[in-house]
Input
Amino acid sequence: MKTGGELIVEALKANGVKRIACVPGESYLAVLNALYDTDIDVIVCRQEGGAAMMADAWGRLTGEPGICMVTRGPGAMNASAGLHISRQDSIPMILFIGQVQRDAREREAFQEIEYRRAFTEIAKWVGEIDDPARIPEFVTRAFAIATSGRPGPVVLTLPEDMLRQHTEAPAAKAYIPVESHPGTSQIAALEAMLAKAERPIAILGGTRWTEGSVAAFQSFAERWHLPVGCSFRRQMLFDHLHPNYAGDVGIGINPALAKEIRDADLILLIGGRFSEMPSSGYTLMEVPYPRQTLVHVHPDPGELGRVYRPDLAIAASPQDFVAALDDLVPARQPAWQARTAAMHEAYLTWSTPPETGPGDVQMGPIMIWIEANVAADTIFSNGAGNYATWLHRFHRFRRFASQAAPTSGSMGYGLPAAVAAKRLFPQREVICFAGDGCFLMHGQEFATAVRYDLPIIVLVINNGIYGTIRMHQEREYPGRVSATDLTNPDFADLARAYGGHGETVERTDQFAAAFERARASGKPSIIEIRLDPEAITPARTLTQIRNG
Output
């Protein structure tokens, strides 16, 4: 006879769970009590949204479901921010929520919410476990749903009295991953399309990639001399210095790359949905019938033909699809080799930072220094804002599992993701980019980094405004500034108050020494970079945008 709390923990262990992010609550004390006797790493966070984002980051970097536990009502609603990220970004994650006791249901009891109504839109499945004997069944199903087809978040709610109840239940078994393989006829059709093509391009995106499948696709691209782009915030899927890399297919795309995609006669879209941001507002391919020949590979059949009608639809995960390409070798030298080389040169030019700009701090030289002084396996995280352009356009990603950034455009993600990444990979350097507005969405998780001695380096790019919104505001309503100015703390002092290391950069030439001191401190660090608001984009100032 075991309690529901003990059965939950046994099921987690059976499914290989090594770490959990949580904010404790009285509604699931029985689970916390059962965790006491295990070696599962429990990371105590300061806000449920940060905890859910940490779980998302683990799922993003490993492909295994990240686990988050929160309490009912306010705790659950705070966590919904991370749930939405996991859903839009196709990240496997399981959110366990303490729930009110069963005999109080449907009375609007203290902090009661009906999660099946509240979260159905942003979760693949929402289940409530009323009978502790069914815990192994529900948890195994949650892992299977979170990882199959298009991965995503699952919510399981746990009534408080159920977790305390003793019962007999079968020993939990691990979930079985659901794999899907392309047919031989589909691979033959792809080979025929490539043989006839004159201007092909591959675009990589989505999840369910592995380090091995990324390397294998690189080999395939080399054999066929294919130009390869990476979808928005999936840049870790191809080495940016590889001669086949064509660039980031995301917000602020290189116009030359956008033209190549529009003019392509064959697009091989692997893993991604090519949604609004990577498709430049659904303009790079027509909806629903693309002008280009489209081969769409996605693990969820429901995504094939949902927006774009493909000429060849292959229901397979990237990993399984790439494995089927091993024997695909061109019969003759592809005619587009020079085009691929030209596209890579255009990318190198596009990703070279400007060395001057308004104000005393120029981000271009800072990015040049970072590129020259960090290892290829450094993990970069960020949330949302114009500041992220400096990272996404000018950092050249080299390795798989080196990027943690939300395709959903959620602010506040970067810091929790950095904490999670450093806990996962303690030997690798982790650098978080955050704007001043973005940082303070979940800045309290810096305390989590201090508590667990996780020496991340956070670059807070402080221009005193909600930069992206101000940019749009000045374009649409020039000079009518409303609700976009900010008043900030001294971020370096804030770092020291938490017990970390703080630095302030007010001139470009101060950055290198500040970074080295932060790195040498061995502490979680914040480097506040005071950027002139005029430096709103790498190409145009705020005044230029205002003046049209």
The chain is about 35% helix and 15% strand.
